[in-house]
Amino acid sequence: MHPSAEPPGWAVTVRASRWYGLPWHYVPLAAWAAKWFSVQARGGAHSWHLFVLAAKLFIGEQPAATAAAGGLHLYAHYPQYQFGPVTLIAAVVVRLLGPDEGLVAGQVLMTLCGLLLLFVAERTARVARPDLDPDQIRWTVLGAGAVFVPVWSILAVSFMHLDDVLALLLGVFAVRALVRGQAAMTGLLLALSAGAKPWAFGFMALLLALPGRDRRWTGLAWAAGATAVLWAPFLLADPGSVAAARFGIRNVADSGLRALGVNSPTTPRWDRPAQILLGLGLAALAVWRGRWPAVLLICTAVRIALDPNDYPYYDAGLVAGAVIWDLMGARRAVPAWSLAAAAMFWGWTAVGGDGLLAGDLRVGFAIAAAAYTIVAPAGLARPAGISPETPG
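User: That's the sequence. What structure does it adopt?
Assistant: Structure tokens below.
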């Protein structure tokens, strides 16, 4: 006797029920997010004061202990603010949403952004990968979400880094626009993502995946135009705004930079441009190889490998990029890279006392992620309108 390939009767009954077609899997994910919210909220919001202070300076207020003007001179006078104009504008709004400068409201909104990221990724995967069973996509989201949510809560609730939240969410929305063949919207969203956090400029490689030269040029024009609108006012008002690109932070013992043999006490001046350019270059290679769903994973992995610090909220980007790859790039939708990225996060957290090993893990994961997604067999999902015969 051979075992039947048919699913058991109870499974058939469940799948045939009316409620099964609803997005029920977000109920346990939301409950899981609420659980982690309660864990991270205690003693959390480590960085929110930075965004509040920057928002006040941006709109012309002069908080205590600040001497120089803000406004369009913000980046020239306060280069420690390493986030972009999109984040500044968002922070101005969020701090007005409740007591304590919008602290709890911000934590709730950023937590919801994580669930929205998963939802948009799932809906996009159903368009990008019609070859996959929607049920398989659903269970992949549930499995990946189980490890994504705890890591995202560190970003959204414990550290409250609005810049990374916006950069990643807008990057995923850009993937959605790409899949739908919306060139202008893709370019605009990529500019907004980089305008939230400059390391996301590497995501611009997605423009190369747009179908046809005309749409690629359209996407590039919108990205360039929106980038100019966001950043030019600061540079024109005060050319010293470029100082923000040279601001250095401490190069800690377990950073990827230390593992690569860079032992300078603070950020080398070449490091920030290298993060963007290497991420962009590898991501462009992935697109050329037909692996455009790897772009977010590659860029976030390069960011972690070349960053002088080891803040745990960095890893939310790594897992978010892995979710996109698992849903749209792999041959089968399984949360393999999402689980691997989360395992790396807990791994280098566990060996935090061994700086060399933690740094090696960061660099090793970045190399593995880039090499695998560029070279290994993939699902070769194509955005709307792309086919093997699509001309230049």
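The two ends are 54 Å apart (CA to CA).
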